[in-house]
Amino acid sequence: MAQQVLTDFQVRRPTMSDLNAVYKVLETCDLADFGAPDITLDDLRNAWRSPSYSLEDNAWVVTTSDGEIIAFADVEELEHVRNFAYVRVLPGYAGTGIYEYLLQQTEQWARRQIPLARPDARVSITSWIAPHNEAARRSLLEQGFQEIRRHWRMEIEFNEAPPAPQWPEHITVRTFQRGEERLVFDTDEEAFKDHWGHLPMDFERWKHWTVERENFDPTLWFLAFDGDRIAGISLCKREHEFGWVDTLGVLRPWRRQGLGMALLLHSFNEFYRRGWRKAGLGVDSQNLTGATRLYERAGMHVARTFVTYEKELRPGVELSTQTVSV
């Protein structure tokens, strides 16, 4: 396909002074797609401040002739083999070629990662959209992307106190303590090796997104122990006016014993105690370890669906997790 060219709009790199205007674009797109925002202003600010992120290199804004920001895109990578493109255009500017232009910019950036990737590794770029965004779907297909996965946002509302957790024998739970960052990181990595698409996370990047966040609350991180061995984690935060389970992970030796459900209910009860009457989390709809069934048993329902599209940039060995043998 020929390179898309924009003639009626300006393209430039964003700066931190554009944060609120860009968030307004993302919020407007989320409202059109889902009826509610999907990320917070703090999420966006934290992303822009990430040590692996560069506004001058992997982000773009499109403006009108009078300088109004009407579109945003960025792209990030893991191990130079998995590249994640995020493209949003105000609904009123659909069909102007902006979406296609920005998608091509992210692909060009991702192609520059190929020489940096392991020589035999498969390199791809993915992007996700709402399932009913037909214009974006057509653009992705026209540029060689294919649907590969669906992820869910699952939620639950509390009309009464959640059930009390039933802990497996010998399990105790407490909140995170400073100095345990590496322990939690290693547990997170070990548990999510069995998550579709997983690639190793850098410790410094993980810290930026977790314990170094301005709104990090260590009393919402729950660690389950069997004696002195950590068995599972539920890492939560407040998002908007409800509780959000960022990470729920149980290590293999303790799976299928009810620990995942106990950690989830423990988190729900803490949300309820704080006056939050709603909880949510994100999950792969085809989760390899059966997490969706766990969440359904806990009373959660699918509130939103996100459709992931992928384009292969170089064939090779897939480095990310695709299947699990247990």
What would you say this structure looks like, in words?
The protein has about 325 residues and is an alpha+beta fold. The protein has two domains: about 10-145, Gcn5-related N-acetyltransferase (GNAT) (Aminopeptidase, 3-Layer(aba) Sandwich); about 160-300, Gcn5-related N-acetyltransferase (GNAT) (Aminopeptidase), CATH 3.40.630.30. Helices cover about 25% and strands about 30% of the residues. The protein is built from eight helices and twelve strands. It has a twelve-stranded mixed sheet with strand order 1-2-3-4-5-12-6-11-10-9-8-7, with helices on both faces. Helix 3 links the parallel strand 4 and strand 5 (about 125-130). The mean pLDDT is about 95.
Which key features would you list for this structure?
326 residues, alpha+beta, Aminopeptidase, 2 domains, twelve-stranded mixed β-sheet, 27% helix, globular
CATH architecture of the largest domain: 3-Layer(aba) Sandwich
Spatial sequence of strands, sheet with the most strands? 1-2-3-4-5-12-6-11-10-9-8-7
Global geometry: globular
Count every beta strand, where a strand is a DSSP E run of 2 or more residues: 12
Structural domain tally: 2
- CATH superfamily of the largest domain, called what? Gcn5-related N-acetyltransferase (GNAT)
Given helix and strand content, the structural type is alpha+beta
* Rg over alpha carbons: 21 Å
CATH secondary-structure class of the largest domain: Alpha Beta
State the end-to-end CA separation: 43 Å
> Uncertain runs with pLDDT below 50, 5 residues or more?
none
Number of helices: 8
Oligomerization status of the protein chains: single chain
Average of pLDDT: 94
Beta-strand content estimate:
25-35%
CATH topology-level fold name of the largest domain: Aminopeptidase
Q: Outline the biggest β-sheet.
A: 12 strands, mixed
Helical content class = 25-40%
Helix/strand order = EHHEEEHEHEEHHEEEHEHE
